[in-house]
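Following up on my earlier thread - several people asked me to post the actual chain instead of describing it. Fair enough. Here it is, all 683 residues.
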Amino acid sequence: MYTVCGVLNPSSLSTERLIIFKNLKKVSHKFVSRYIGLITFFLLISSGSTFAQKKLPFLTPGAQYLWPTKASHYMSSSFGETRPDHFHAALDIKTWGRRGYPVYATRSGILWRLRTGPTGYGNAVYLRHKDGSYSVYAHLEDFIPKIRHLVDSLRMINYKFDFDKYVSKYDIHFKQGDVIGYTGSSGIGPPHLHFELRTPEEHPFNPLLTNLKVQDHIAPIFRALSVEPLHANSLVRGKKEIYTRRVKRTGKRSYSFGTIHVNGAVGIGTAVYDKSDRVHNVYAAYQLILKRGDSVYFHSRVDSFSYNNTDQLNLDRVYPLLRKDHEGYQRLYIHDGNTLPFYVKTKNRGIINLPSGTYHFTILASDYFNNTSRATFTLVVGKPEHKATIAQDKPVINPVSLVENDSPIPPANLNHWFWSDNWFSPSSQIHHLKLIPDGEHHESEITYNLNGDPVGIPIRNDKKIILKLNNNDESILYRIYPGEKRVLRTPDQLATASFSATSVYDTLSVIFNHRIHNHKPALYLLPDDEPMHHDVTISYLLGDNLKSLHHLAFYTYNRHNHKYQYLNSKRKGDELQGEVGEFGFYYILQDTTKPGISHPHIYKRFDGKWVASVDLSDNLSGIDFNRVRFYINGVRGIAEYNPESHKLIYYRPHFSPKKMNNLKIVAHDMVNNQATATFDVKH
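Reply from S.P.:
Thanks for posting it. Predicted structure:
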């Protein structure tokens, strides 16, 4: 149902609801006006459609936005989609794989900010409008000459490619419809236009909240359901793990996930995508509702957010599935620490915790244009599962053997346990477990007999607890609290992990230690299925076998592309430090290979300007593009690096090559291996 300022639009109602609406018109206008909000809510609950669209109070009366390009009137991505560690803040507009379409100012405004760089937004223009709001145009191939001259003059001061300046003092204004640049693929991804609108507080908001529209008559499509055990006594199909199930289509806009047996409190998530007319791209759903009968458990609608909490995507999504499989399941409950503004209505924060019985649920997914799909599922709720037995004596148990000494895997496969904020469930290998509060008396120990059953162990609030497993192996469990700084040290004092006051979203239990991997240390900070809010600093004291080595750094291993990824690292004496943005494993590796420089070429760019290029690549740690220098005939230019194509471009205003040209390139990788190459090139 589409509403404008709280008033029902009869054309959007079904036949049955249209009859209701017509009957309502017979009631006095005063009565309808007074109770229209209640009527709208009733229809929402019964149909799953939207509330009144969010108002934009900062907008000047009558303000209209112009579609910013004639490349197409189709989206390749929608507002609020899943991105690595953040929400997509814009509409991406299709350019059909081509570059060079004019980009127009969506409203009149002053040139506020300019950016260039090899990643992120690439070439980007920011305009500030009369009402204080902003529009952003990113991934441009180039700016118009007036902007290009300003950018070049500022970049030539230090020859830096990575450029980000506020430029309102130059008092450059554009009228609505003026060309400001040309579409491209700078920064990241294939050619498209990233079109972003921001409030006066610089909070991105959905451009479809304005007069801008696209053709969309296709309802969202459900793919899968997830069910998470949320309490220590919860089970999903007899296990303490996240369960996923693919959907069965039952009609044009109806789906079923069947019946699922659970015990205790659970959280529901769903993988659902949207489409629009005449394009194959898939988008995020705009609105999600979870309800049982007429009772709404959860209702979210993605209109706007703050850049200060955009990384809470990792709480809004089912993070373990997002990290492991890149699957964007959206949680239909509010996770601890989540302060996003999307949640219109929840019951018990969306958590389902019901007595034994059978319950039928419905999920409604809508796009911005009120195309709605419906999925149903049934929960058969049993009694909460039994707690782990506290041992009265110490039985004789065959311990699980430790992993090999050169493996980075922690003892007892701790990364394969199910971890929650205040409880955990050991793997089936573990039959005997002891919690020993550090520094307290022996009488405070708690010993559990598990027998390999899927049980939840509640975690005490001691800041440090020793886990003794199968009478054979020990790990230390640390409690990390938001708002508190904390430094963890391994028992041998070789490694530390320094948490800031904002490193975690909510209270978290972590395990920190190290192992030897291929004769080099591998640190681990677990659980790796929980998101990290802000970076943690790790360090390792290098032993005699490592302290004499140069070009060492921390790396993570990307299991999707099977490559090591460099972590920001620095050497301080015999200590190696690194900044990590997620829990997991961190390997110390040596990179002694210089960057590769090859295939010099001089040519005219699409706009008729002369440039030169070389292929620039690195085998492990990556190119430090801020240190690259590029000279032609002894004259330095701006070195523009494209990490996707591994091309290094020489750019200088008014560059004109000679018949024979000497190219010199000096490049460093992230661990300071330097390569120098010279070429003589004809044009």
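Helices lie at 15-25, 29-47, 145-155, 313-316, 319-325, 544-547. That should answer part of your original question.
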